Amino acid sequence: MSSPLQEPIFDVVIGGGGLVGAALALALAHLDLRVALLEGTPFDDREQPSFDERTTAISNGTRRAFEALGVWARIERDATPIRRIHVSDRGRFGFARLDARELGLDALGYVITNRVMGAGLWGCLAETAVQLISPAHIVGMEAMEGARRVHYRAEGEATRTIDARLVVAADGARSILRESAGIRASTWDYEQVALIANVFPQRFHDYVAYERFTETGPLALMPLSGGRMGLIWTLTKTQVDEMDRCADAEFLARLQDAFGFRLGRFTRVGTRYRYPLALTRAGDYVAERFAVVGNAAQALHPIAGQGFNLGLRDAASLAEVLADAQQETGGQFDPGDGLWLERYRLWREADQANIVRFTDGLVRLFTQPLGPVKLLRNLGMLAFDLMPFAKEALSRLSLGAASRVPRLTRGAPLKHAH
Ligand SMILES: Cc1cc2nc3c(=O)[nH]c(=O)nc-3n(C[C@H](O)[C@H](O)[C@H](O)COP(=O)(O)OP(=O)(O)OC[C@H]3O[C@@H](n4cnc5c(N)ncnc54)[C@H](O)[C@@H]3O)c2cc1C
Predict the structure, then answer these.
(1) What confidence tens digit (pLDDT) does each residue in 86-123 have?
(2) What is the number of the ligand 1 atom nearest to the C-alpha of 297?
(3) Residue 203 in contact with residue 197, Cβ under 8 Å?
(4) Which domains can be identified in the chain, with CATH numbers?
(5) Could you tell me if 137 and 47 are in contact, meaning their C-beta atoms sit under 8 angstroms apart?
(6) Strand (E) or helix (H) holding 1
(7) Which residues line ligand 1 (CB under 6 A)?
(8) What is the pLDDT of residues 339-375, one digit of tens each?
């Protein structure tokens, strides 16, 4: 604790420049703060784990935040709107629909590849005063008097350090920063794997996203440009190993069997990727001069497409807390002060609890093999289709309106106008 701080002392250092860390850096660039972003893998590297070929469904709230941050204009042409969502259970009578028009919306959300979002976010960041340090592989962190010190390594170089009043962990589910801060995380392994691929159906998707519950687990098809669909198929580890051994024709036949012919025949499949699925939750959102955002705070099952949207709300909330603190104090403020961090913690706890309960509950409900649960599911889905209120509740949850909504995701500027 006694060694002197190293100039410049940053107001905020963000560790991890994936989807959430990059969005947070961009939001903070709108405040008059000295900010640095450390990222292990350059954003345009093929190995960048946050910006791979996965497609992500973003909510209208996330789209509004992207608009406010100037990202949307760069990525809009690559985003496919979701006009309807169709939920069904293989071999059962229940199904449900959500329609954007019924809710007075243009779209329920948008589908976009992570690679495009990464390029958009980092493209915007390059035009700000945020200090971008990449490749910078974080190896640890220590507490200092009035600051935190982050240790990182660029390829082939000796370890360097950087000091900040506040360090934010955005380095994903296995966050080294979170561990260094002494925040424990619990992980529940779903013993499932998400198989991801682009598939080409005979019929045009007409901007409908499909979620189908099969014996193996949920299967989602998201509308993409050029008539393609982004497949996210949840399988057991054994099943996914088996699928890996299948040639494309055999794979497509199995997909056809699970999904049916609503979109005609599947004619082609692109490269297949796999992601093990777990629920990871940090024991706390904050520690001394430290906060966690995104997957470092919670990594969810992708069944309901909530992970990034929730992580973005973490970033938008933290940026808003700091913007308000700056305005309240007339600019002379310490961003690592526990008072602000406590505000952030209280805000995030409610939102996280809602979304985790919703997502985890959905996983459990739809992977239950028991008869009565299935019956409940069918009735639930039929009732859901007949109940506009239930639908509205679900879509409000998807829009992130279940708890206090950050200004950015409402499309309002981060700073209050005087
Ligand atoms: C199959 C699948 C489908 C999904 N679909 C959706 C969806 O439709 N909608 C949705 O909202 N969410 C979805 N998600 C969730 C979403 O992808 C994540 O919530 C999101 O990627 C979290 O972003 P993040 O920036 O917090 O973490 P990450 O994406 O994990 O990024 C962490 C970043 O930190 C960097 N890093 C890690 N360690 C270090 C270190 N030691 N030093 C320096 N840098 C480091 C990494 O290189 C990376 O850039 C899906 C997830 C999966 C697995």
Answers:
(1) 887 766 655 677 888 988 889 989 999 999 999 999 99
(2) 26
(3) no
(4) 10-79+110-187+278-368+403-410 (3.50.50.60)
(5) no
(6) none
(7) 15-21, 38-41, 49-50, 54, 56-57, 137-138, 170-172, 176, 194, 196, 232, 275, 294-295, 302, 305-309, 311
(8) 999 999 999 998 888 887 777 776 766 665 544 445 4
